[in-house]
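Ex. 9. Protein: Beta-lactamase.
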Amino acid sequence: MPRGGGSEARLIGRAVMRIGQSMLASAWLSIAPAAAADCMADAPSPPAHRFAPINAFFDHEVATGKLPGAVILIQQRGKPPYLQCFGVRDVTRHSPMTPDTIFALHSMTKPITSVAAMMLIDAGKIALDDPVSKFIPAFADVEVGVESMADNGKPALERVAANRPVTIADLLRHTSGITYSYIGGPLIRQAYRDADIFAGAFDNAAFAERIARLPLARQPGTLWRYGHSTDVLGRVIESVSGQTLYQFEKQHIFDPLGMTSTKYVLDSDDERARMAEPLPGDTVLVVSERKRRAHPEWQSGGGGLVTTITDYARFARMILNDGEFDGRRYLSPAAFKAMTTDQIGPDSGVARDYFYFPGDGFGFGFGFAVRVEPGAAKPPPPGSIGELKWDGGSGTYFGVDRKRDLIFILMQQTESERGRVVPAFKKLVYDALVASD
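Predicted structure tokens for Beta-lactamase:
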């Protein structure tokens, strides 16, 4: 895939960029809300040279035109040892990256929607074993698509009855059978494409109805498969709460946590000017973002939120603190434990798809990938048993390592480079922490 924007990146001298971004980050911290400033109040940051390899890595990514820019936050023991900006928000405008730059989260929206659903479970409004049809009647008659070879030698898709209802737990752990148009057998993928589920204007209610008419890729509860499950979960939240998904999340998550820049639609020219953009040559993400922005009426619980790194850090700190933040509890201990426990382990009866995004060594809870073993790689990737993570197709990524009292977040806008940059970033984070221990 072409990597556009190299000439733009080179126009901005590397030394000027690094000095400028460091000054901007420092200036932003001095005017940040009190909670953000408090992150550095109790203790000095670790020596800067500990993070030199991280600086060098992202300097190189920007200087060679692979990334327009990035923002990184690493926080351990409640103190932010590292908050750094690299490059620009948009290579066409050359506006510098700052901590208040807004990023499209894509699938890093899913953990937030999952927390919102677990809050309703805590409140007794829904239960994990509730059928989705209790809240979205169209799911009462879902069918499963079985691909086979017909007598004439051509592939055929037979629709059969589901063995059991799709449940709330299925939506949370991606075992509903709902998929994406690019995952699964060819006939299932074609059925999604033929349905044209993004045509015209639609809200969460209409989108859930469209999904309910499509064949499930597998019987409910039998396979971890990525897809629109969390989008359907967003509609359940609306149905139960009587609010839009954004209204519910704003009231119960964003406002209490102080996530002032987290939303589905940007409201002002100032916010739009702060939006990070992918390189023009990052065509998959460019097209995906064009489609997302074409539907401001759709509050996609699976991929529609935009936010800043400092906003998401507040959410991540709440997860790090077992569902509590600044004296306010968002999740009961039981709900938090369920979310962060592998729900698709060997005794669950759930197989893992060939497209298993959590990765080697990770299970999946109710909204997060959960590390359950080191994995098969030699040496294994860095991290701890029990660490939590998720990422987005736009290149966003976060991890929560409770054993090390650590969160780490990467905000960037790239689909073409994320598979390389994300694991490199994680390794650099742990290398820096080991060096400073």
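Check your answer against this statement. The chain has two domains: 6-108+245-436, 113-117+125-241.
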